[in-house]
Amino acid sequence: MKTIIKISILFLLFSSMGAGCVKDHESDQQNVNIMLYDKPLSVIQQYITGNWDLHYQIGGIAGGKYVDDYNSYLNLTSNHIIMGNDLYGVVVDTAIIWKHNDYTYLLSYPSSPISYIVVQIKKDTLVIRDDLNDGYSYYYTKH
Question: Considering the entire predicted model, what is its pTM?
Answer without folding.
Answer: 0.78
